[in-house]
Amino acid sequence: RKEVERLIKLFNTLASESRDRFAAAAGLDRNMFRNILHCTFGMMDDMIMDRVFRAFDKDNDSCISVVEWVEGLSVFLRGTLEEKIKYCFEVYDLNGDGYISRDEMFHMLKNSLLKQPSEEDPDEGIKDLVDITLKKMDYDHDGKLSFLDFEKAVRDENLLLEAFGPCLPDIK
């Protein structure tokens, strides 16, 4: 109860700052939320931060309400493995069709991997990584990851939870 009360108090403080800065409705706008993800949780990837915002914004009104804030942080910080699997899958399913496609994997990995200067075409290395990932996680061999594929792969190997980019806070 005390944690929820603190989260609500923090939300009210942040939401009032958001209103002052951006004249937003009662809640956190995308810019304020991304700033929190970056400054508090060290997230750097713009696409992942945008997807995390969408995962929190359940009613899709471009604003995080106090309920969405508390429920989202509950999973984000203290969620069970099952809750985190659902959350990460939602973040990675860029078009919301219930699958993580080869193109979605490529796009996320391209954004989240550090770019190294080399002679090789970096896109080729990413394509190879997508192929390896599909071999490891695509249990029904349909060329894309369903929620069931993703869930089974993560249960077999927990490190695969954030296979396509960091969308959960680290232990700190």
Automatic annotation (TrEMBL):
MF annotations from Gene Ontology: calcium ion binding
Domain EF-hand: 44-79, 80-115, 125-160
SMART domains xref list: EFh
Superkingdom: Eukaryota
Keywords: Calcium, Metal-binding, Repeat
Record InterPro entries: EF-hand-dom_pair (IPR011992), EF_Hand_1_Ca_BS (IPR018247), EF_hand_dom (IPR002048), Recoverin (IPR028846)
Gene3D superfamilies on file: EF-hand
A Pfam family annotated for this UniProt entry: EF-hand_7
Name of the protein described by the UniProt record: EFCB1 protein
Organism, scientific name: Crypturellus soui
